[in-house]
Design the sequence.
């Protein structure tokens, strides 16, 4: 799969020369990956508004590397890419591809972690998941790599109104512009986790000439 | 009528009378028994077409559905499933949760937010009757696929899978999973003969059923060391056990005992164990001369 890589490791001035993941233009990936990732395509959100899906991805070569790569001080890459059998089959094997904006989410979660003062646990299927994931009905910021479902903070399970609303407030106070799902059962609400996202953020690495 | 047929009919009559006696003394509202001996072909069907609330015996058909997905290549035994305690009722898609206190061990509940393998969930669904594991697996494969599997295998008669477990709204509306003793018998005979998908997959399902941790029913009064691959099921009004019994030096027999009770009725496990013991004696004290 590495032959599909179109951009070398990003070593531009001002950016970390040690970040070990290669940037990939999703449009150059093999057809089964393109079908699953739909790079650059439009996808309608729940209100019918079209959103443009990410085109540029980091290539994650192995689970071992995902276990080692720090996206932020307290967040490793693997925490963002746990998907279950509902994910499209090609995207459950390595190499895996995550939108470049995932690093922004990690920085935000690091700040959130500082605010809550304890461990923040992202649930399975609750970090990046592709538009082909069976949970992805409408355009969801999870497919942009900028949404997290948090099911536990420290020893507190976020499965009740009190816990969800308390940490939701902290997230909104800590992260300007972040959106959190209100507590509740209907579609668009959450009652067994805290969902936060940054919207439909696209990250285009600076040495990409698109 | 051949002599052997006469003898078989007499044996069946004697066994039926013993079960009738146990039923009369038990206080149960209804009892059904289905029996198939894979060594001799002997069968008994005592009210075996009567429908009962399936309780957790429905997990055997679901196990079959999971392995059908494995057989098709849709799932692998080590495929991972997100453990989440949120399900939608078949009544208006209203969300509900499974009570952690109803699962005999906390392994699946402790994994909420994480993932577990399909084979782990299948093991917990059967051996400790985890309702959470059951609904998670059903969420992945779907009730429709399970029913199609049963039909393809020719064992759909006597099994009605309509929903997941602990769907209280459905229960209140009378939408329940139902089984007959004959329905469960057909599935277990298929499994015991290695005819469910492949001998290897049948064996894996039997291995899981052998891990059953609730042994107050069929195995309770069998000789120590008797191997029983089985699945129990119990709610306030029913108590069931369905399994394959392996005695030394003979092929196994398959036994399903379904019982229905008043919510306050007692002696459920004792009744099932008593029927199981009666059948054990039937096979060991009066071995077939066929």
Sequence:
């Amino acid at each position: 799969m590495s032959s599909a890589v179109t951009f070398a490791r990003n070593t531009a001035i001002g950016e970390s020369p040690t970040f070990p993941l290669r940037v990939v233009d999703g449009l150059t990936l093999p057809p089964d990956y393109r079908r699953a990732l739909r790079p650059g395509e439009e996808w309608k959100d729940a209100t019918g508004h079209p959103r443009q899906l990410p085109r540029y991805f980091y290539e994650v070569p192995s689970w071992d590397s995902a276990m080692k790569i720090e996206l932020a001080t307290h967040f490793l890459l693997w925490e963002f890419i746990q998907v279950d059998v509902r994910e499209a089959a090609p995207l459950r094997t390595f190499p895996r591809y995550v939108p470049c904006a995932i690093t922004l989410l990690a920085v935000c979660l690091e700040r959130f972690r500082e605010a809550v003062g304890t461990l923040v646990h992202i649930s399975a299927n609750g970090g990046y998941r592709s538009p082909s994931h069976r949970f992805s009905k409408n355009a969801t910021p999870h497919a942009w790599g900028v949404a997290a479902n948090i099911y536990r903070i420290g020893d507190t399970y976020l499965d009740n109104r009190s816990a969800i609303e308390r940490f939701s407030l902290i997230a909104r106070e800590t992260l300007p512009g972040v959106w959190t799902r209100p507590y509740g059962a209907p579609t668009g609400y959450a009652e067994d986790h805290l969902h936060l996202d940054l919207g439909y953020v696209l990250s285009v690495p600076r040495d990409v000439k698109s | 009528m051949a002599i052997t047929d006469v003898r078989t009919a007499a044996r069946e009559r004697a066994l039926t009378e013993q079960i009738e006696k146990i039923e009369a003394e038990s206080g149960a509202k209804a009892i059904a028994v289905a029996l198939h001996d894979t060594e001799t072909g002997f069968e008994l069907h005592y009210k075996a077409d009567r429908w009962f609330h399936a309780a957790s015996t429905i997990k055997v058909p679901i196990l079959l559905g999971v392995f059908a997905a494995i057989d098709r290549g849709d799932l692998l035994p080590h495929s991972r499933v997100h453990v989440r305690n949120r399900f939608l009722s078949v009544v208006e898609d209203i969300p509900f949760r499974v009570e952690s206190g109803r699962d005999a061990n906390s392994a699946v509940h402790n994994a909420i937010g994480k993932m577990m393998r399909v084979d782990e969930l299948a093991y917990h669904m059967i051996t400790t009757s985890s309702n959470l594991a059951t609904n998670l697996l059903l969420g992945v494969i779907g009730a429709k696929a399970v029913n199609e599997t049963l039909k393809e295998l020719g064992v759909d008669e006597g099994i009605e899978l309509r929903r997941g477990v602990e769907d209280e709204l459905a229960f209140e509306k009378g939408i329940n999973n139902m089984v007959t003793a004959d329905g469960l018998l057909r599935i277990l005979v298929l499994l015991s003969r290695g005819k469910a998908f492949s001998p290897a997959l049948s064996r894996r399902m039997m291995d899981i059923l052998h891990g059953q941790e609730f042994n107050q029913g069929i195995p309770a009064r069998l000789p120590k060391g008797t191997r029983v691959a089985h699945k129990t099921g119990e709610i306030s009004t029913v108590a069931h056990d369905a399994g394959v019994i392996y005695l030394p030096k003979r092929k196994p027999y398959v036994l399903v005992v379904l019982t229905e009770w008043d919510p306050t009725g007692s002696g459920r496990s004792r009744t099932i164990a008593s029927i199981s013991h009666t059948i054990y004696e039937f096979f060991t004290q009066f071995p077939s001369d066929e």
In short: Residues 108 and 147 of chain B are 25 Å apart (CA to CA). The two ends of chain B are 15 Å apart (CA to CA).
